[in-house]
Write a structure and sequence with these properties.
Structural class: mainly alpha
Number of strands: 0
Length: 416
């Protein structure tokens, strides 16, 4: 079971607010915000077709925002995948209420312009109460009861002003967009403003979820994420690390044995690996650090955490400059990532290591060419690049990359 990232309910709201601004730009939330922003192009379709399609996009936006709020209220740190969370009834209730507010704003703009700002202000003030009530009560009739709004506003105190301010900003942005899009190319303005709307909506609902999470006992909620983490054994790993820290003060070798036994059982979270490496560093166990590095790098690649694997690799290279992963697929994946990230020196090290350790592997010419190109970018390493290319031609005269290898050789041979 993948690790469940959770947030403690007693985390200060100031910290949740700071961290919240990055929430819509992480994981599934970013992909969803981009997809929903692009989906607003359907509004360019003619007549009622475009209007209906736009309404469906807005419905999807509120639905995903409702999932984010409920996900956060349940103690999860990361955004949910689309359709993976939330109470369906409350989600559609939120959708209906927000579409009604959008419709009131449109009617105000067209028929009663002077009423637009009062409508926006009222909506900004009461929508957070309605949204949060639906999240923890799931009762639409209760959510639209003004007495219930007062109960919720009083329960959250000054923190309630945060989603109110975001809602006001959202309303202002919508008004500004309606004016500005007439002056910008619509194909450009539409997705830019749509992304800004979606970002603010997800942010507001995430922060409301954080407010609910902090006060879950008051509203009779039991956050799901800590229970799931406990069922998966994550709490046991956290307790193990805490116990090992205490034990390491008097008997670091016993702490190491305890952590090593855990690492042999099954996939362990980063905290276990990191403290194990910390203890190995303290004891000066250089060879054990390199052995563990090989194991953890391979596990991280298998889990799709290649950037973290690259960090462990760099740490191991600091211990032993000749270190490379002991599996060609792992080594190749990290070499490709190093190239994409502009880490030229590391890419050369990994690519040359690949060719040296697995010279007859079918991918060796690819990584040899990768290394040669990186070397060729440095004037003082042209000779090394040329020598590497010559070895590739001699070893792989009929390889499909022969044309690219020859082109690189000619480029090196031509005067600058």
């Amino acid at each position: 079971m993948p690790r469940v990232e959770i947030v403690a309910a007693d985390t200060p709201f100031a910290q949740r607010l700071r961290d919240g601004f990055g929430y819509p730009l992480r994981g599934a939330a970013l992909a969803t915000c981009v997809a929903l922003a692009l989906a607003h192009y359907v509004g360019l379709l003619p007549g009622y077709v475009g209007a209906l399609a736009s309404a469906l996009v807005w419905a999807a936006t509120w639905r995903y925002a409702a999932d984010c709020m409920q996900h956060t209220a349940n103690g999860y740190a990361d955004p949910p995948d689309v359709g993976s969370d939330g109470n369906s009834a409350s989600g559609w209730g939120l959708t209906a209420i927000h579409l009604l507010v959008v419709a009131l704003c449109v009617v105000s703009i067209v028929f009663f312009p002077r009423l637009l700002w009062p409508v926006l202000l009222l909506a900004a003030l009461v929508l957070p109460a309605i949204d949060m009530s639906l999240a923890f009560d799931g009762n639409l009739a209760l959510a639209i009861n003004p007495l219930n709004w007062l109960r919720i506003i009083g329960g959250f105190g000054g923190a309630y002003l945060v989603p109110v301010a975001i809602n006001l900003l959202l309303g202002v942005l919508i008004v500004v967009a309606s004016v500005t899009t007439a002056r910008l190319p619509r194909l450009l303005a539409l997705p830019l403003f749509a992304f800004a709307y979606t970002y603010l909506i997800v942010l507001a609902f995430h922060l409301m979820g954080a407010m609910i999470h902090q006060r879950h006992e008051r509203f009779g909620m039991v956050p799901e994420a800590p229970e799931l983490a406990k069922a998966s054994g994550q709490d046991a790993d956290d307790r193990l690390v805490d116990a090992a820290r205490q034990q390491a003060t008097d008997d670091p070798q016993a702490a190491l044995r305890q952590l090593a036994a855990r690492l042999r059982e099954r996939a362990a979270p980063p905290a276990v690996h990191q403290f194990y490496r910390e203890l190995l560093h303290r004891q000066g166990l250089r060879d054990d650090l390199l052995v563990h590095g090989q194991i953890w790098i391979a596990a991280l690649i298998a889990q799709g955490e290649s950037r973290r694997a690259l960090g462990v690799l760099q740490e191991c290279c600091g211990i032993d400059a000749s270190f490379i992963p002991d599996d060609p697929q792992t080594c190749g994946a990290l070499a490709d990532l190093a190239v994409r990230m502009g880490m030229s020196r590391l890419a050369i090290h990994l690519s040359q290591g690949y060719v040296a350790h697995w010279p007859r592997d079918p991918q060796a010419p690819h990584y040899g060419l990768l290394a040669a190109r990186a070397l060729a970018a440095h004037a003082d390493q042209h000779a090394d690049a040329a020598a590497l290319l010559d070895r590739l031609v001699a070893a792989w005269p009929e390889h499909p990359l022969r044309g690219e290898i020859d082109a690189q050789r000619r480029q090196l041979a031509s005067p600058a």
